[in-house]
Amino acid sequence: MSLSTPDAFPPVIIDDVLGAQKMLSGVARFTALEGSRHLSRLVAAPVHLKCENLQRTGSFKVRGAYVRISCLRPEERAAGVVAASAGNHAQGVALASSLLGVRSTVFMPVGAPLPKVAATREYGADVRLQGQIIEETLDAAREYAERTGAVFIHPFDHPDIIAGQGTVGLEILEQCPEVRTIVVGVGGGGLAAGVAVAVKALRPDVRVIGVQAAGAAAYPPSLALGRPVTVSAPVTMADGIKVGRPGDIPFKIIGDLVDEVRTVSEDALSRALLLCLERAKLVVEPAGAAPVAALLSDPRGFEGPVVAVLSGGNVDPLLMQRVLRHGMAAAGRYLSLRLRLTDRPGALAALLGSLSELNANVLDVSHARTDARLGLTEAEVELRLETQGPEHCEEVAAGLGAAGYAVTVIH
User: Fold this and answer.
1) Where do the TM regions start and end (predicted)?
2) Alpha-carbon torsion 271, 272, 273, 275, what sign?
3) Whole-prediction pTM
4) Each residue's pLDDT tens digit, 47-74
5) Of the residues 61, 200, 242, 252, which is catalytic?
């Protein structure tokens, strides 16, 4: 539930974003804009990656948090600030508060990844683990604010937050004056709204496209109805954009200024993260890879030059391991097969020899000899292979067939 309404604040305008840029001078990094040859070939136009994953705290969130806390009155600063987050906003608020000499308390879910909890503490926040899901954590933070007088720092639903995030758009226009399309991930909408305010004021011809995970896409139905609606139980690996309801303030801005909001699948997110790691040599969290996922899903649907905003790189190592495996499977880099052999000495070795000649890397082998489905002289083998891609998968299956094996591909 939002803590504010659009009418409670003046609209966010370009002067707010320019003012935020001055506040952030020497605080936020002017992050790199890196070209991507692979994506440029795919899109048939220049594609650049705006590397907010290399921002301080590992995401764009410190921009908005610093501006918001900078604008507090002296008595508000003295009361301290409180936030609730599973990761990026927590770290942004913690660092911004430390830089400004403000006491910060950050509530995080009990199951928050340990590296993110440790980083938030190291940035200076008093971290309190409470709630199994983020809604419970938000309730705890709000109760703390009411009880202590601390100022609640919303992750996206405040004009100062939006103005701070909008400085990403100013940097893009400076770094890539010829840009025609900017693609940005959307959760609550603070980043997309800020970028849209900056870009549309200075370059109204540039298209701004938002991207949501299909399992947590509250904006398309909200925009269709003309008001924020809640998606119950959003599900996605992209925690950074896993928001069940648009913020009231960013919703109005996005409705007015963002040209389109698209959705991407979990497979596309996995493939995008893998591509960023392998081709761009960049560690990006699933939410940060959402714009790249949109490019992979519809490569000819964007007018170039294109800038894709990589919003963050704070990914838990265990999640990274799972997502990379998923991404390799989605990219056709894994092949699972079932086949039968004559149960005699050397039969399995011969099969493995055939796979070696086909340049397939064996990851797992399951060998069954006793099963009612098998003949007395038969054995069944299940294999999981690493391949070079979809075409190589077809070559391996065909090669085994040519060698006399009856192959079943397991999907």
Assistant:
1) none
2) positive
3) 0.84
4) 999 999 999 999 999 999 999 999 999 9
5) 61
